[in-house]
Amino acid sequence: MDFLAGYYVWIKALHIISVIFWMAGMAYLPRLFVYHAEAAPGSDKSETFKIMERRLLRGIVNPAMIATFVFGIAMLALNPGLLWDLWMQVKLVLILVMSGLHGAFSRWRKDFERDENRRDARFYRIVNEAPPLLVIFIVLLAVAKPF
After folding, report:
1. Residue 83's CB: how many other CB atoms inside 10 A?
2. Helix, strand, coil shares, percent, the chain, to 5
3. Which residues of the chain have pLDDT under 70?
4. CA dihedral defined by 113, 118, 122, 125, rounded to 10 degrees?
5. Fewest CB within a 10 Å sphere: which of 75, 80, 101, 110?
């Protein structure tokens, strides 16, 4: 069991690193949407934002989310008893909400790519607050294990 415990610590570290990159991208992408929504479709600014959004999503956010899930599932496989803890169940629900938000960001990026965005900058400013709020609750659950 000590052998697996050594792996668990490394997997946990990689999980935390992945989460940091995922959340950094989830915080930055809607900020790009704010600026993109203020740019005229087809303008040089709009085209630059398309490139930035695509590279951020495909190069950082998507791989970081996948790594977060891989390492998180690996930790649960090594310690399946965590699934019975209420704090973990609530955390997993919040992670599903974050994943849904990730999916929405991906769809909205495609709307911008096709110059079909129908939302204003104010909408994206509001949405920009969701990932930090979710991550606050997720981290509090993981650290404090309140239930």
Report:
1. 10
2. 85, 0, 15
3. 1-4
4. -40
5. 80
CB atoms within 10 A of CB 137: 13
> Are 34 and 52 a contacting pair, CB within 8 Å?
no
Query: Contact, 29 vs 37, CB < 8 A?
Result: no
Contact 145, 87 (CB under 8 A): yes
C-alpha dist (Å) from residue 98 to 84, 101, 103, 131: 21, 5, 9, 7
**Which stretches within the chain are classed as H helix?**
2-38, 44-56, 62-78, 86-113, 121-127, 130-144
Tell me which DSSP letter residue 147 carries. Answer: -
Local structure of 44: helix, strand or coil: helix
Q: Is the dihedral of CA 38, 43, 45, 49 positive or negative?
A: positive
Nearest C-alpha neighbor of 82 from the set 131, 135, 141, 137: 141
The predicted-structure confidence for 36-52, as pLDDT tens digits, reads as follows: 999 999 999 999 999 99
